[in-house]
Amino acid sequence: MLPLPSLTPSFGPPAIPTGGEGTMRSVIVMFAALDYLRMTLDQLYKPCGLNGHRFLTLTTLASRHPIPCLPSELASRVCVSRSSMTDIVDDLEHHGWVQRQRDPGKRRIVHIRLTPAGWAVASAVDSHFRSVCNELVRPLERRELPRFVGFCLALCEAGEALGTTFPVFQPSASYP
Q: Of 126, 143, 137, which Cα lies nearest the Cα of 56?
């Protein structure tokens, strides 16, 4: 297991004791758990050419199959920029898992769809990932799963809102 970062910095000013130490520790533990999970998933899927973004793109396309997606739609669902999605689609296309098709009525519009090989990979990944998910939540009691899902969804919404409403950190001029 990964070591959790200390709440007390070893340099600079001490952590501000606002009574939120438990909250801060909870968030730090959550980020550590997510990082560990992401590293584990990369370890499981990287040998077949999938990283987190390719995995999400492939499974998003599979969930809509046979309906194609616009690159902007995929970028939004995978939480990357449109230019990053272009690189992801390039990689998936190189593997032969997706293809781009121009809209016959509007040549500037490009649709992304799974190829038969991409569908086969997505189907195999789906089966394997279901097993991974079952193993991941095995320590939870069945009755805890709905609450866990609700908690995760609430964190997603809070994180999305935070990114648009919370001010960006601006170091003062006194920082070196």
A: 126
CB 85 within 8 A of CB 75: yes
What pLDDT sits at residue 2?
Answer: 38
User: pTM of the full predicted structure?
Assistant: 0.70
For the segment 61-66, the average pLDDT, to the nearest whole number, is: 91
CA distance 99 to 110: 10
Bridge-partner residues for 98, per DSSP?
114
Q: How confident is the model at residue 90 (pLDDT cuts 50, 70, 90)?
A: very high
Distance CA(161)–CA(48), nearest Å, equals 35
List the Cα angle 30/31/37 in 5-degree steps. 90
20, 29 Cβ separation under 8 angstroms? no
- Spatial separation of the C-alpha atoms in residues 166 and 155, rounded to whole Å: 15
Dist CA 141 CA 91 (whole Å): 39
* Angle between helix 82-94 and helix 71-78 axes, rounded to 10 deg: 100
The CA distance from 168 to 147, in Å, is 31
pLDDT at 20 over 80: no
Q: Which residue's entry shows tokens 């046979």?
A: 66
Alpha-carbon distance 155 to 142, whole Å? 21
Whether the pLDDT of residue 120 is over 90: the answer is yes
